[in-house]
Amino acid sequence: GAVVSQHPSRVICKSGTSVKIECRSLDFQATTMFWYRQFPKKSLMLMATSNEGSKATYEQGVEKDKFLINHASLTLSTLTVTSAHPEDSSFYICSASSASGSLGEQFFGPGTRLTVL
Amino acid sequence: AQKITQTQPGMFVQEKEAVTLDCTYDTSDPSYGLFWYKQPSSGEMIFLIYQGSYDQQNATEGRYSLNFQKARKSANLVISASQLGDSAMYFCAMREIRGGADGLTFGKGTHLIIQP
After folding, report:
1. Tens digit of pLDDT per residue, chain B (116 long)?
2. Chain A residues close to B32, C-beta within 8 Å
3. Is the separation of the CB atoms in B61 and B49 below 8 Å?
4. Are A24 and A76 in contact (CB under 8 A)?
């Protein structure tokens, strides 16, 4: 199956700093990438949908100025958590799809665990 | 209203027994896809099986099969001959077409524990 990587896998930062998380599709071109967050013992919640070369579409309740998403190429999307606070601590998972507008499978990255002190 | 409902927060099953994980969904779209993912304690999401809304036959992938009952809007996952390594969280998810590609909507998950 297709491989999606995320970097870093784990990050600890101080409150008020910004953190960038990278999501890469290693062996296919991802027309669409998705960002999810998962709180402990909870389900995954979609944060935003990102199409290459266009602005991300954010889900209701997700602050676009706080969670900056860039999808500059068909293999890379980044999520930047700006001015992070302890309540932003979570597991962030990206997924990538090569079939825009279809019911194609999404391939998930291994996730990034963010802890904000 | 929840779009994906998983009514079993946790399940204990004896090794080698078959197990059924329940999932019901709610959508008004005629085109949708249903997915099951496994999430072990490491956190990675492992794709198990997919069922399209227009698929006539139930999906099967090795020990996994999906019992798709469209009229009842249910998509239960059946794991045959369970193994200790099957212990994990299992999420049912749905993807709808809403003017383009959209992310998955997940259920709350079922924590499956296989006992020796």
Report:
1. 679 999 999 999 999 999 999 999 999 888 899 999 999 999 999 999 999 999 999 999 999 999 999 999 999 999 999 999 999 999 999 988 765 557 899 999 999 999 99
2. 103
3. yes
4. yes
Asked if B104's CB is within 8 angstroms of A44's CB, the reply is yes
3-state secondary structure of A102: coil
Nearest alpha-carbon partner for A11 in A117, A90, A113: A113
How far apart, in whole angstroms, are the C-alpha atoms of residue A106 and residue B59? 17
Q: Distance from CA of residue A11 to its chain's centroid?
A: 14
Separation of alpha carbons B75 and A55, rounded Å: 34
Q: In DSSP terms, which residues pair with B76 in a beta bridge?
A: B67
| A59-92 residue pLDDT tens | 999 999 999 999 888 899 999 999 999 999 999 9
CA distance B111 to B116: 16
Shortest CA gap B41–chain A (Å): 10
User: Given an 8 Å threshold on Cβ–Cβ distance, is A43 in contact with B32?
Assistant: no
Is A43 close to B108, i.e. CB distance below 8 A? yes
CA distance B109 to A39: 13
Q: Quick one: which of B40, B9, B109 has its CA closest to A45?
A: B109
